[in-house]
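Field reference: sequence -> structure
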Amino acid sequence: MTKIIITGSKGRMGQALAACAVHHSDLQIVGLIDQGDDLRSVLDRGEVVIDFSLHSASPGIAALCAAHRKALVVGTTGHSDLEKSQITGCQARIPVVLSSNFSTGINTLFWLTRKAAEILGAGFDLEIVEMHHRLKRDAPSGTARTLAEILAEVRQQQLGQVLRHGRAGIVGERSAEEIGLHSVRGGDVVGDHTVIFAGAGERVELTHKASTRETFAEGALRAAAWAV
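Structure field:
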């Protein structure tokens, strides 16, 4: 029996995690923590924390988990470089699973994106479009950022030098090196991601569309069981 604590329990993903966990006889939710609650009050009950709170809260949660020797699964996105390093720095003391997306389909998209970039080569322009519900706080999504990192890695580029967030005004011709990234917000969209490879006379598009948060929740629960 894997004993799990959820941080960000009142959010959309926190609620999805709790709802999915009841269908697994080998998992038990022993703590539900949200803003205003003290994680330290329940840490001794659990073996692993699944964090879907806020990116700014994740480093502190990671530090507490490390101090109490509890495994950690991080599903928050939008981390600064400092926040990410603070989270991953705890890996020397505890198991830490940090992912921009726990969906099996999205991880397949990551693989397909890498293979397509390798096969198609430099003759194709690279663009990423992501769409999420109107309440999502960060942009671009962590998943879109991961896709951009994959493309830059394949082309042996520094992402910060080639990433272009949207376009407006007289921007001139598109350079062959840049990777375009566009964020759309509206309605109740759970998460859509499309990677576009645009060449001369042809275009390849790889798309993943999530219709329920249970997809992400199930993946995070599997990660929690694995981490313990």
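Note: The longest helix spans residues 104-120.
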